[in-house]
Amino acid sequence: MIDDSVNYDYIIRYIRSVIPESTGFLKELEEFAAENQVPISQPETIKLIEVLIKFGRCEKVLEVGSAIGYSAIRMIGAGAGKVDTIELNHQAAVFAEKNFARAGFSDRIKLFEGDANDILPELAQNKNNKYDMIFIDAAKAQYNSFFEPCFSMLRHGGLLVSDNVLYKGMTATDDLVLHRKRTIVKRLREYIKMLCEHESLETAVLPLGDGVALSIKR
Ligand SMILES: C[S@@+](CC[C@H](N)C(=O)[O-])C[C@H]1O[C@@H](n2cnc3c(N)ncnc32)[C@H](O)[C@@H]1O
Fold first, then answer.
1. Residue 115 C-alpha to ligand 1 middle, in angstroms?
2. For 155-194, how does the pLDDT look when each residue is reduced to its tens digit (9 = 90+)?
3. Which residues participate in S-adenosyl-L-methionine binding (predicted)?
4. Is residue 2 part of a domain?
5. How far is the CA of 93 from the centre of ligand 1 (A)?
6. What is the pLDDT of residues 110-144, one digit of tens each?
7. Could you tell me which of 162, 179, 154 has the C-alpha nearest to residue 60?
8. Any atom of ligand 1 within 6 Å of the Cβ of 161
9. Among 22, 50, 74, 168, whose Cα sits 20 to 30 Å from the Cα of 30?
């Protein structure tokens, strides 16, 4: 299995072969992530997000899980005007801030260091915090608790993108579920069901990357 993807290896190899290779600073970040086992978005997933940002003319984006800032930088590069991003890990947050400065995006990306379970409700208290896109890419077991504040900050017509929801295929079949992962899988199944049945959302689950759920707020 390539990179925790849910797809056939030959499909992933083919899709990646047609995505133009990154150059310059982005390539450097990808190499750094690979060398240091930093989990950044897979090429096909970040490409989807770039297309969605352009298609939806997403101006304000909220990201849960910055890591070293790779996806936030790609989202600004795709045309987002402003990205707010939340990261729990101090070392990752320090790298991310440095990378935003190096990319020349420090004035357009605001990093909130801390637990999204604390930061999201605080952000949601300010009724002016409305986002065109919210990208959830952090601890999978916590997606359910991230949801309510994210939903309240998503504008009508806005897009919620939840990454890794198929979790190496485990969400889709008990045959693949590792014993130590069964709580995460149970929570992801509840999360997908909630997204799909939510009366104010229209959700599509895509077998792309590690599984991506796209939810539009009515
Ligand atoms: C998959 S990485 C994010 C990758 C990034 N979006 C990218 O594509 O470049 C997930 C990140 O979420 C962070 N994280 C996990 N749980 C979190 C939480 N409760 N609050 C904030 N960040 C969290 C982890 O420290 C990790 O850096």
1. 10
2. 999 999 999 999 999 999 999 999 999 999 999 999 999 9
3. 71, 87, 115-116, 137
4. no
5. 10
6. 999 999 999 999 999 999 999 999 999 999 999 99
7. 154
8. no
9. 168
Containing structural domain, residue 20: 9-217
Please name the residue that has the structure tokens 């989807």. Answer: 48
* Binding-site entries for Mg(2+): 137, 163-164
| CB-count exposure of residue 99 (10 Å: 0-12, 13-18, 19+) | buried
Q: Look at residue 3 and tell me if it is in a domain.
A: no
Which pLDDT does position 175 carry in this prediction? 95
pLDDT score of 5: 87
Separation of 176 CA from ligand 1 center, angstroms?
24
CATH number at residue 156: 3.40.50.150
Q: CB of 39 closer than 6 A to ligand 1?
A: yes
Residue 23 lies in a domain: yes
Strands 131-136 and 109-113: unpaired
Residue 29 lies in a domain: yes
From the CB of 92, is ligand 1 less than 6 Å away? Answer: yes
Enumerate the known binding-site residues for S-adenosyl-L-methionine: 71, 87, 115-116, 137
